[in-house]
Amino acid sequence: MITTPLKIRGRDIVDADGKRFKLASVNWYGASDEQFIPGGLDVQHRSSIADAIRRMEFNSVRLPYSDEMVLLNPLIPSELLSANRDLVGSRALDVYEAVVNNLTEAGLAVIINNHITQATWCCGINPCDAGWSNSYLGGLCRVEQTEDQWIENWETAMKPFVDNYRVVGADLRNEVRGLWGTMKWKAWAKAAGRA
């Protein structure tokens, strides 16, 4: 069980007791995909999944989301929540928040991950998902966003967790890459700093 808050001591992350906290993470896919929620909520209750992660001796979960999930925040079909009946009638962001809360209540650390712009299985050669913003592509993308919009999505996604000390990290963007090797790393460093 993680004792919070975490802090940095030299090169180590330490917990509230001053003990080294070494991340042993699992990735819980799904909220970045077309169904807009973490996978398996039709099969197991989210608290059972959190308990299983702890039993397997992981102490943290990386939880991806897509910008499209944040922007659309769709109503989730009840059949995708058949093992989580208390969430039927919820929107994507509410389901995401409930999953994070169950994970942290189980004592797990959570790292929120902005995985992709357009909700899809990650990460092909689609230039619309190569970076944090894609508005320079001029209408080519199904989900178009500027850097400012990307940051606004982060703020929306993180707002429910501002006082949750077990949400310990922000993976700002999965696999940032340029179009066919043209990544401007200084632009990414600036955007990451702003975010």
TrEMBL record:
Which Gene3D superfamilies does the record associate with it? Glycosidases
- Lineage, top-rank taxon, reads Eukaryota
Q: Where is the Glycoside hydrolase family domain?
A: 14-192
Sorted alphabetically, which InterPro entries does this protein's record hold?
GH (IPR017853), Glyco_hydro_5 (IPR001547)
Keywords for the protein's UniProt record, in alphabetical order: Glycosidase, Hydrolase
- Keyword Acyltransferase assigned to the entry: answer is no
GO terms for MF? hydrolase activity, hydrolyzing O-glycosyl compounds
- Single GO biological process annotation from the record: polysaccharide catabolic process
Protein family (similarity comment) = Belongs to the glycosyl hydrolase 5 (cellulase A) family.
* PANTHER family cross-referenced by the UniProt entry: CELLULASE FAMILY PROTEIN (AFU_ORTHOLOGUE AFUA_5G14560)
Q: What is this protein called?
A: Endoglucanase E1
- What's the source species for this entry? Lachnellula suecica
